[in-house]
Design a protein that fits this description.
Elements lengths: L10 E5 L6 H12 L2 E4 H15 L6 H9 L3 E4 L2 E4 L2 E2 L1 H4 L2 H10 L3 H12 L7 E5 L2 H5 L5 E6 L2 H14 L6 H17 L12 E4 L5 H18 L1
Parallel strand pairs: 1-6, 1-7, 2-6, 7-8
Antiparallel strand pairs: 3-4, 4-5
Helix pairs in contact: 1-10, 2-5, 3-6, 8-9
The structure holds 2'-deoxycytidine-5'-monophosphate.
Length: 227
């Protein structure tokens, strides 16, 4: 029996780099456990999209933070709306992904999104994915996973995904963009993407999605038994 008093609503934090598949794994784990799911990257993407819709510059920290704080967003069964418009496709574009990585560098923006992220912690539990779920947003998460894959594997997976959607891209360019984003996300001053000491490493380079989901579930079961 652990003597630490835990928050009554468990959180599984899954952090990792872009295109690692953490979102897919988080969704499937949440489905298996009947938990809620937070895709925190979507909030940074929505902030970048709102900035482009409202003409706020990506280096205007105060303007971006104001947008982030007042995001008029609605999450309903697999669908995201911003200011009443369905934006699932728009926030997944590479341009918005790069914009999200830029706005995410600002402390005021991160602060503005913090409380909103924590509202997703609802019974019976939450699976949250991002970069700082285990370090900043839910430091008391009962299970922290650092989910990664080699940059080549991630670029190939993203390439296949985009091609299947009929979006033509050059693999080499994707690889360069991923490397650039990895570097920005890992070297920024605030909440950089790094594996925390208390996070379990899950390298999916040679794994299927189903195997990665099982890995998380097995570790969650171990934590539950211990508590
Ligand atoms: O997970 P994603 O690719 O949708 O995230 C988009 C960007 O948002 C990513 O480049 C970094 C940023 N981000 C962040 O800084 N912190 C998070 N918790 C989630 C995403």
């Amino acid at each position: 029996m652990n003597s630490i008093i835990r928050h009554p609503i468990p959180v599984i934090a899954i952090d990792g780099p872009s295109a690692s598949g953490k979102g897919t794994v988080a969704d499937l784990v949440a489905q298996r456990l009947g938990f809620h799911c937070l895709d925190s990257g979507a909030l940074y993407r929505l902030t970048a999209l709102a900035a482009s819709m409202k003409g706020v510059a990506l280096d205007d920290e105060t303007g971006l933070a104001r947008l982030a704080l007042n995001l008029d967003v609605e999450f309903t069964a697999g669908c995201v709306s911003l200011m009443g418009q369905v934006v699932d496709e728009a926030i997944r574009s590479e341009v918005i992904g790069v914009g999200a990585s830029r706005v995410a560098q600002y402390g005021e923006v991160r602060k503005a999104l913090l409380a909103r992220q924590r509202t997703f912690r609802q019974a019976p539990g939450l699976v949250a994915d991002g970069r700082d779920m285990g370090s900043v947003v839910f430091p008391d998460a009962c299970l922290k996973i650092y989910l990664t894959a080699s940059v080549d594997v991630r670029a190939e997976r993203r390439y296949k995904q985009l091609m299947e959607k009929g979006i033509h891209v050059i693999l080499h360019n994707l690889l360069d963009e991923l490397r650039e984003r990895d570097l920005r996300d890992a070297t920024r001053q605030l909440a950089p993407l790094i594996q925390q000491a208390d996070a379990v490493l899950l390298d999916t380079s040679q794994m299927t999605i189903a195997e990665a989901v099982e890995f998380v579930l097995v570790h969650y079961e171990k934590v539950r038994v211990r508590e």
